[in-house]
Design a protein that fits this description.
heterotrimer; A: about 160 residues; mainly alpha; about 55% helix; B: about 400 residues; two-stranded antiparallel sheet; 16 helices; binds calcium ion
């Protein structure tokens, strides 16, 4: 577990480094940029396998993960969040200290919700949906559609004894 | 924008705001779906439904005994769609002799005309006088739930507003989601008319379950109001429970998850890629796909079967409770016939009052258990126990006195 | 990198397969979590729990009356972790005089040694003889659920296999998901010992609820078995219900959705990124994050509060039912003391038998209603009604004969 020790000793430095590398890698080219938001890339982590698998069976499977999980209000915000969340994900993946059950955070939920509305504004045009003002309206998409991307059956299949 | 097809707020002429007709052109999807409330198809579970003359009294004959001496023994039907609210009201055999307070939950006329003029005054005037000016189209129109100027939801039934305020809740500053429950809750709840000025009030102060509401009536919190009637057989002072749909839902799993009446009974529907709110407030199993399946992954069949099971379990106990209560009234009557005194029968009469309250709380509720299974079943268990206690107590008295 | 969703199969020496020790090194995550079954912390809801001497008889004294004349009045504790199965069994005051069939659900010794040798023969031998050779580590080891050669789940309790076969279900050809319930269900169910050869059998033929199982015993489907004991006070022929956890779960919302015992009681955990199945089969509210939140969006607090509410509602009716049953036994006894004949008391005794069966079905079940709220509450409602009917019938007889 040298990685773990390294991380624990130099957490800050590693994070800053990770951030820079993240942004740099992402900046290398639009191909890399696109790949690093794709189901194939995100799903390459153990922690993401379940979500990638369920997503692949959803009505939205043609989308990129980042279409929902990163803010799309402007490019700077997008890049910043991409670096920031990518850093956190990498940190926990390396430490392997993430919980058995990863649950989306309330900020994460808000981001996703904004993205629903980004694509489906027209659909919601005639009903009460003050998104952005508060999630406490018809605009709380996840109240009714939380299983749209990853199903709601989280049964994961067994652990194999080989 | 040219492609913007979103609904535009329409100006409804003031003199037409209480009706429905004037909204037809501006809001066709909502209007047309509201008119589906005229549908009278049976309930998918067999509980509830919307047929005329769907009589509780025929379905559960024990009710005739339990309401003996009260108007509910004359006619007591299952509720129908909102478009029938005026018609069914005017035709019910329970109407003669009632006061104006009865129209409180049948249209917004009481508010936009009477209440705005002179508060609760209408409440204690004779019903004939109060309902005379209301035109057919003015019973249960769009203004019943919407502010006609803004089309925002509105909660204006002052009895409900006051009763919620006593619980520390300002319904008009509630979240939008909560309003999607309160707009229904202002009518779909247990109420009584105060003896003092006939206004509508709700026994919510101690909590939203049958026991807390019973305590409200027992403790004098209802002021001079003590009973709805004296039972013809047992001479017990009885309470009538009315549709505690709000109270039942309020502590349910669905309420916990922020799921309101509107989410199930008025699901979003689609037309031309746009959503609108269905205004056919009916049994949601008639629209399972839209009402349930967005949140639930189970199949429509599985969900329906579950609602049916809960309903069957509830109805099984409801019948046992209702029949035992009926027997309790008859047992007290037999004791009276055999010479038991009012003093001796004091406790049995309290017991049958309480037992019937619990039974009626469920029988009058409209979800047949589904809105909150374990709460409803607990209430029925208490009813069965109290009704039998009444019978045993009465028999013990008789044994002594024979 | 280690594959975080697989484990390497280890060869366990044949003579060590029944114990746990030999598995320790090969499967440390599973072994260590299994050892957490030694934990004795209290239940988050106050129902259940795992403390030694957590006596049902002290918590609900009406049980002493209801089990009068039977071993359950001597000692009847709440269940503890699987690691205590041998110890608690050997120490229970209910043990003296029992037969070998008792060990059927306490380890796989009965199967791997006795059953493989000579079928159900062990069932009717004296318990002391049958349990003598079982070493401490051999009570409830890994082989209780796993085939030690392959570590696959196994269902081998022949009584359960046969009883399910009569329902048309071949448990060993079931889906993997179903096996995740059957592996528990083979023990956590209602059973009786046949009079014919003492084997374990289950009253599942007519259905998986209390009424159907009662009908099984009433109709002669249990062969020569008619009762577990004669009640000391009422002299009624009584049945003891045992932990119908499987039957309760089997028709629940969770079962409908394919959620098995294992999903809640043995959730997936992670250690250093390695995923494993928790082997601490305890109250899932001790692991709400992993047990519930993987499927539910509500907060842990909301979910716990809901389980608590269901438990409180259930316990309220369970106590009423239990106490009324106790009173029924005493009422019959009073009638006997006053000279009532066996013929007169035939019907009351049938009523108390049935009432107690319904009550016990719930009292012996381990989810305090949560596993299936409305089914459990219906059963309690029936119990309350039948127990009172018994009292009323008996009093009516006495009134006639006094
Ligand atoms: Ca109806
Ligand atoms: Ca326990």
């Amino acid at each position: 577990m040298e990685f773990k020790e390294l991380f624990q000793k130099h957490t800050l430095a590693c994070l800053a480094g990770g951030f820079v590398i993240g942004v740099a890698v992402c900046g290398i080219g639009s191909a890399a940029m696109a790949f690093s938001g794709s189901p194939a890339f995100c799903g390459s982590c153990h922690a993401m396998k379940g979500e990638a698998a369920t997503f692949a069976m959803s009505s939205h499977r043609a989308l990129e993960c980042t279409d929902c999980h990163l803010p799309h209000d402007n490019a700077v915000h997008y890049m910043f969040e991409k670096g920031r969340t990518g850093m956190i994900d990498t940190y926990h993946e390396v430490l392997r200290d993430y919980p058995a059950n990863i649950k989306i955070s309330s900020e994460g939920r808000q981001t996703v919700n904004d993205n629903c509305l980004r694509c489906h504004q027209t659909t919601m045009g005639s009903v009460h949906a003050d998104v952005g003002v508060s999630m406490d309206t018809g605009g709380d998409c996840l109240k009714c559609h939380s299983s749209i991307a990853h199903g709601s059956n989280h049964l994961e299949g067994g652990i194999k004894v080989e | 924008a040219p492609n913007d097809t979103s609904v535009k707020l329409a100006k409804i002429p003031q003199d037409k705001q209480l009706g429905k007709e004037a909204y037809k052109e501006a809001y066709p999807l909502e209007y047309n779906s509201f008119m589906k409330n005229n549908d009278t198809s049976p309930s998918p579970t067999g509980y509830g439904g919307a047929q005329a003359e769907n009589s509780h009294l025929t379905e559960q004959p024990e009710m005739v005994e339990n309401f003996k001496g009260y108007k509910f023994a004359l006619q007591y039907d299952d509720d129908r769609g909102h478009t029938y609210a005026g018609e069914d009201f005017k035709n019910t055999k329970r109407l003669p002799g009632q006061k104006g307070n009865c129209i409180t939950c049948k249209s917004s006329y009481m508010y936009d005309v009477y209440y705005k003029q002179s508060g609760w005054d209408y409440a204690s005037k004779p019903i004939d006088e109060v309902m005379a000016p209301i035109e057919d189209d003015q019973w249960f129109g769009c203004s019943t739930c919407h502010d006609p100027e803004t089309m925002e939801l509105r909660v204006y039934q002052q009895g409900f507003i006051d009763s919620m305020a006593r619980r520390g809740i300002d319904v008009n500053n509630a979240s939008h989601n909560d309003k999607r429950a309160y707009v229904c809750a202002q009518c779909h709840n247990e109420y009584y008319f105060t003896k003092e000025d006939g206004r509508v009030n709700h026994p919510f102060d101690n909590g939203l379950d049958a026991e807390s509401e019973y305590e409200f009536y027992q403790s004098g919190q209802a002021g001079a109001f003590k009973q709805d009637w004296i039972h013809a057989d047992s001479k017990a002072p009885m309470l009538k429970a009315q549709h505690p749909d709000f109270e039942t839902w309020a502590t349910s799993v669905h309420a916990d998850a922020g799921v309101t009446c509107v989410d199930c009974h008025m699901p979003y529907m689609r037309e031309n890629g746009q959503k609108y709110t269905s205004h056919w407030m009916t049994n949601p199993l008639k629209t399972t796909e839209e009402s349930c399946l967005k949140c639930h992954d189970e199949s429509a069949e599985t969900l329906k079967a579950r609602v049916q099971t809960i309903g069957d379990n509830t109805f099984k106990l409801q019948r046992i409770a209702g029949k035992t209560v009926a027997q309790a009234h008859k047992t007290i009557k037999a004791a009276m016939d055999a010479g038991a005194t009012d003093e001796q029968l004091e406790e049995p009469r309290q017991l049958v009052r309480e037992a019937q309250w619990y039974w009626d709380w469920v029988a009058a509720e409209n979800g047949m258990g589904f809105h909150n299974p374990d709460k409803i079943m607990r209430t029925l268990g208490l009813s069965i126990d109290k009704a039998h206690q009444c019978i045993e107590k009465t028999n013990a008295i008789m044994k002594g006195s024979l």
